Amino acid sequence: MAEPQTDEASLEQQLNATSLSSSSSTSDQNSASQLTLDQKFAIVRSIGEECIQEDELRNLLDKKPEPVCYDGFEPSGRMHIAQGVMKAINVNKLTSAGCRVKIWIADWFAKLNNKMGGDLKKIETVGNYFIEIWKAVGMDLDGGKVEFLWSSKEINARADEYWPLVLDIAQKNNLKRILRCSQIMGRSEQDELTAAQIFYPCMQCADIFYLKADICQLGMDQRKVNVLAREYCDDIKRKNKPIILSHHMLPGLLQGQEKMSKSDTSSSIFMEDEEAEVNVKIKKAYCPPQIVEGNPCLEYIKYLVLPWFHEFTVERSESNGGNKTFKTFEELTAAYESGEVHPGDLKPALSKALNKILEPVRQHFKNDKNARELLKKIKAYRVTK
């Protein structure tokens, strides 16, 4: 896929830095109106590891002043940094480029998938806790371009529109095709699924049209159901298909873990982890010397630290080479592969950067009574797969 040009990437970083460090939504809106089409495209396209299709995305940004982006999540336990930090970065990029973002709090879907034991009261508590985290970490919620929508309330409000759509999608797909989408729930085709879980992909596909989404901005693990939505457009002879922007999935901290999982607390960094917890987890993380491929520590720098701070500093004694600041991931990986930067240098620097990002979240959950009570409840819940 095409990479943004250097000057566009630089502009994207400036806008992202502004939206993460400033509460002035007016200035962000003014900046978005002054962007060229190429600049908007570079910012929005940078979110996706994959884009289906780039020409459609460019045309959308050219023709529609405020494209609607759909994102969603199942409230299911504590939030890790892939959900917290990456989503804040991506949402702020989208709004800085003039997009509107609808975040679907999929409480009914969490129930269908037996998250939190299917207890809707617990699921609602988790959903509210997620929103508190995004507020604290710096997601730009003041400009009115981000909406949190509870699936149960929204579906009930227009049930006569939603359920016929779900049934039509179900009728136009065979069971084998729907089962191939089971990955979106963290399941596989081999798992013994309940009837509710089989119905789940039809509902998630319907959400895209129900929310009038132009762009599906979800993880690579949700790709199959987004493709199902595009195929459904062919079935109903609809020309304007939802554009798919699938973002990268952060791995777990231990060797061979392709995706961060909240059920394995040793391999995940949670948004309200204390500084000492972050330090211990990074210290134990898989980080082989001179190896870039499959190195989670380097991935966290690439997808979290550099987009946030636009630089990464390794602090060392003068006798050990002195401090070194990297502006790009390519600079860092070259130094790491050569042995100039050792895991013993990289890990403390990564811990320091992550702790700086997470500190406002910690303070919010310590000082805000409502947030503190939510976290207390969340920590008492048992996470279910």
TrEMBL record:
- Whose protein is this, by species? Arachis duranensis (Wild peanut)
Job description of the protein: Catalyzes the attachment of tyrosine to tRNA(Tyr) in a two-step reaction: tyrosine is first activated by ATP to form Tyr-AMP and then transferred to the acceptor end of tRNA(Tyr).
Pfam families annotated for this entry?
Answer: tRNA-synt_1b
Determine if Ligase is one of this entry's keywords.
yes
| Record InterPro entries | aa-tRNA-synth_Ic, Rossmann-like_a/b/a_fold, Tyr-tRNA-ligase_arc/euk-type, Tyr-tRNA_synthase
Provide ranges: composition bias, Acidic residues: 1-10
By its UniProt entry, which NCBIfam families does this protein fall under?
PRK08560.1
Q: What is this protein called?
A: tyrosine--tRNA ligase
Q: How would you classify this enzyme at the top EC level?
A: ligase
Any one GO molecular-function label of the UniProt entry = ATP binding
- Highest taxon in the source lineage: Eukaryota
Which GO biological process entries does UniProt record here? tyrosyl-tRNA aminoacylation
Region span, Disordered? 1-31
Q: Nucleotide-binding among the record's keywords?
A: yes
* Keyword list, A-Z: Aminoacyl-tRNA synthetase, ATP-binding, Cytoplasm, Ligase, Nucleotide-binding, Protein biosynthesis
Which SUPFAM superfamilies does this entry report, sorted A to Z? Nucleotidylyl transferase
Q: What is its EC number?
A: 6.1.1.1
Q: Where in the cell is it found?
A: Cytoplasm, Cytosol
The reaction(s) annotated as catalysed by this protein in its Swiss-Prot or TrEMBL entry are:
tRNA(Tyr) + L-tyrosine + ATP = L-tyrosyl-tRNA(Tyr) + AMP + diphosphate + H(+)
* Gene Ontology cellular-component terms listed: cytosol
